[in-house]
Structures
1.
Amino acid sequence: MDAYDLPTLFSHRDVLESLDPDSPPRMVALRSSPTLGSMALLPGSFNPPTAAHLLLAERARREGFGCVMYVLARNTIDKEPNGLIPEDRLLSLRFIAQRAGMGVAVCSAGLYADMADAASMLFPGTEMAFLVGSDKVASIFDAGYYGDREAALDALFSRAKLIVAPRTDDGEVARDVLAHEENRAWAHRVSILPLHPAVSELSSTRVRGMLQAGADPTGLVPSAVGTFLAEVGAFAAPASNGSEEIDRYRIRTKLLEILWSAREWAERAADLRALVRLAAGPGEEGKQLRRLIARGGARAEDLASLQSAPG
């Protein structure tokens, strides 16, 4: 499995398209590990995954959880869709979930109450907890997200605990939310897990900004994720080729769409790495392929011909 592994990327698309946000919540595990009776669910947008996500997962393992499951919602609540495509977010998560006791799952729903419902069906009898940042606590208790807030929170906390890992406030935000009269009934199901202050610097927003500026995010992302982001050109500024700007990651994204529509040929004969290299290059073949991609007119036979062209 690598950054250009088409069968894996297509399998991610298969799972994502199989999950219907309008149907009852459902979770699918792409990689799971024995739970040993307890599991910590770590939801996020993972755009991209950072060292903070890995550190939090490792801390949960040290706290005794049999497994930590990184969970990506098909439609992530309150997050911008720009950045890594979902297939690549899952791929980068799978790179860091190679460690013992870690897994990756996709959920059709973004609300924690719905995730808890889906997780309890996928892993019946497993003790569950959610790992969240302080910023998520207020939204979890926000009535605006629910038709029946009390019923939804009763269902959530009957299935899972909430472990809050504050980045900068030592848990004050979470404690303030729990101190409200309408939230006290569930306060006993919420605990604070202090993290090292340095974790506050390890945000996806900061990583994206560094990559856009051409800086090296080493130390802010797991090494496997850093290698992946550099290899595919995610968040990097477009390269100039005369008057033309070439965005390598956008090219990759467009090619994946084209190859998905020609999946039978793509899985048998396509070389995504070679096609991206060609389309991002300065030669005439690259210009031709970029024109085809821009017009939406690239076909399997065009890709096959260009892919096999000498040089």
Note: Residues 6-201 form a domain with the Rossmann fold fold (CATH 3.40.50.620).
2.
Amino acid sequence: MISIPEEHWRVFGEMAWTDLIEQLKELSAKATLKRFLKQPRKKKTPQPKRVKDPKHPHVSTAKLLSQG
């Protein structure tokens, strides 16, 4: 009932299946689906650059396990 008023539905009841399929394909091609989205997608924000702290350098887990 969104795109076609109720009185126009009677025509579809009398159509052949092949005609109905073609008509529905034509109608669906004209539909704008963006109107029915609940929440439009937002652009991704880039990750902030990591700050390297010279006081706390990275040490691999393998190196720590081999020492202990």
Note: The chain has a mean pLDDT of 86.
3.
Amino acid sequence: MAAHRVAVIGLGYFSQFHLRAWQAIEQTELIAICDQDEAKLQYWSGKLGVTAFANATDMLDAIQPDIVDIVAPPPAHLPIIEQAVLTSKLMICQKPFCRNLDEAEAAIDAANHADCPLIVHENFRFQPWHREIKRQLNAGLLGRVYQAHFSLRPGDGRGKDAYLNRQPSFQKMQRFLIHETGVHLVDLFRWMFGDIRSVFANLRQLNPAIAGEDAGLLLMEHTGGTQTVFDGNRLADHVSDNPRRTMGELVIEGEHGTLRLDGYGKLHFRRFGEAADVGIPIENSVDEDAFGGGCVEALCRHAVSALDGQAALENPASDYVEVMRAVEAAYRSNEEGKKILLS
């Protein structure tokens, strides 16, 4: 079977994980990259031996890739998608997805009209420890789940130079903690515990060097009765040799006991009424050299499997808009100081 031809658009900091993933997947061939930054184009085209384009329209016209992986900023998403759907077989788009809900829905309409699958690159749910947690929840390890609490503590948000060495755009985001980072947990909790019924947010800015919020609490109620808390603080850290491995710690409490994810990517289960916990082995392989244990490659492999008819897509953009609505509700809740119900 011929390999699926892949083109990556956008060569910012996070694109390195996408490029590495596509090179590792046997069923794909990375054939082109695109960015407006000439230095980045020269570096990656020389390193990877692929064709480089400075313009996405020119690239799509010239090579008509099977898979288009969009790692460009949100303002570029809709116009790229509207062109890519005409010839590609699958599109993957990084988050934040488009600039707003109207653009997201227009992108989804274009994909649906062309019958071209469009998914959002929401990779936290593909981290190996989160996949294992989902398996354990489905198997009934905790029984009825009462609540879950994720403490985001990467410790990278201090001082006037915060984020500049990796993702400097973070400093200028008017909406930061929830829009850029917390959205991962909104999607993760919705995937684990079902649709979100209501949200309440209390957000704040601790580092005056950035434009948006970098700490706060987001409380969500799910239709199945579980309550989840995203507790974010980018200035504080947690116990780990690599704070970016898990980005924090997760605790899930249920009728049978408590399941905990630590900063080393290890899972621990303490049965109700007992003092000691036991380790829960992780079934999926963990790549310690890659972001999030290899979640980018895992997501890409899942997308290829779906394209080949071997799996159903977990994260279509048409479903992801519900995550975006929850994020919008979080900012409204913070502004109005009240719980927001979602229809």
Note: The first strand starts at residue 4 and ends at 9.
